């Protein structure tokens, strides 16, 4: 039945995107505001309310039956609150309650942004047809989500699959999260660039010192740039192999800005996986680039809303 319609929000540190999405994952109406990330919590919420107000102005709004929210995290789906690292005004902020009120009382589902992207890739993208998958977002941070037994597995608070904070180097650098040697501390874009600079790589005349610039240098054969991406690839491989060994996934999907580096990242990643994914049941693990692009967060939030709406209401009796 393709008359299903849900509202979706994708909330990040840069922008708040909203959409009305149908049961096939097509975006029918869009709205967007810049995130006033450094303002107080209620100012940020006003931008969310404006996005919902734009959607509510559409003649299709009356058909929306639920609201899906994908947010930068940490999120706490059980409490309906969010504390995004890059939005300091929101700490334990009651986003679900406020968004529901702004959306006229629609039932709301909250998931982390990594889980939202996973939902999108499983529904429409690179993980489609796979019952057990890990989807990763490798960009400023490293996030992710899991599909197990054909279903999204967000976990009790909505953060399951957060592979960026698996430690892959016991004596490694301290991570801002408080642990040491986390995947994110080695493989995120800023850390790839930091490592390259520390080891003597220098940006070109334009001064661009981003991971994308390091990737371009690696493609051109710069040994230091290549080594920085190989180090990131090993960290990702170790985290993916640990996850596969634990829960038996058969595909890992890599998205995010760093994922766009293509073979500079994926070739050493596939090679390194052979060193870490050694047991018989993880050796056939595929690695694929994400397919959903910038709409993944919205489509995934919609998928969560559709799934939540279809879920039985007898959960208390299970």
UniProtKB/TrEMBL annotation:
> InterPro entries, per this entry?
ATPase_NBD, ROK, ROK_cs
Question: Which chain positions lie within coiled-coil regions?
Answer: none
Superkingdom, taxonomy of origin:
Bacteria
Q: Which SUPFAM superfamilies match?
A: Actin-like ATPase domain
Classification via Pfam families: ROK
Q: Which family does it belong to?
A: Belongs to the ROK (NagC/XylR) family.
This chain's protein is named Sugar kinase
């Amino acid at each position: 039945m393709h008359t299903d319609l849900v509202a979706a929000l994708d909330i990040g540190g840069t922008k708040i995107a909203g959409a009305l999405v149908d049961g096939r994952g097509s975006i029918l109406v869009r709205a967007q505001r810049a995130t006033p990330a450094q303002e107080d919590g209620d100012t940020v919420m006003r931008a969310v309310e404006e996005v919902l107000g734009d959607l509510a102005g559409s003649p299709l709004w009356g058909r929306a039956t639920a609201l899906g929210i994908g947010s930068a995290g940490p999120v706490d789906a059980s409490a309906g609150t969010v504390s995004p690292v890059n939005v300091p005004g929101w700490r334990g902020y009651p986003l679900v309650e406020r968004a529901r009120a702004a959306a006229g009382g629609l039932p709301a589902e909250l998931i982390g942004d990594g889980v939202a992207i996973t939902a999108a890739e499983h529904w429409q993208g690179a993980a489609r047809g796979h019952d057990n998958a890990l989807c990763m977002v490798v960009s400023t941070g490293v996030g992710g989500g899991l599909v197990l037994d054909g279903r999204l597995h967000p976990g009790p608070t909505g953060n399951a699959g957060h592979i960026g904070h698996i430690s892959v180097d016991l004596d490694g650098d301290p991570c801002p999260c408080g642990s040491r040697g986390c995947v994110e501390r080695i493989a995120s874009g800023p850390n790839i660039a930091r490592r390259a600079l520390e080891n003597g790589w220098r940006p070109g005349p334009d001064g661009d010192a981003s991971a994308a610039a390091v990737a371009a240098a690696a493609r051109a054969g710069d040994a230091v740039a290549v080594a920085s991406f190989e180090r990131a690839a090993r960290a990702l491989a170790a985290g993916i192999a640990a996850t596969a060994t634990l829960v038996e996934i058969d595909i890992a999907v890599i998205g995010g800005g760093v994922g766009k580096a293509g073979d500079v990242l994926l070739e050493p990643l596939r090679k390194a996986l052979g060193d870490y994914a050694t047991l018989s049941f993880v050796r056939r693990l595929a690695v694929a680039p994400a397919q959903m692009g910038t709409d993944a967060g919205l489509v995934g939030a919609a998928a969560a809303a559709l799934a939540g709406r279809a879920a039985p209401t007898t959960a208390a009796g299970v």
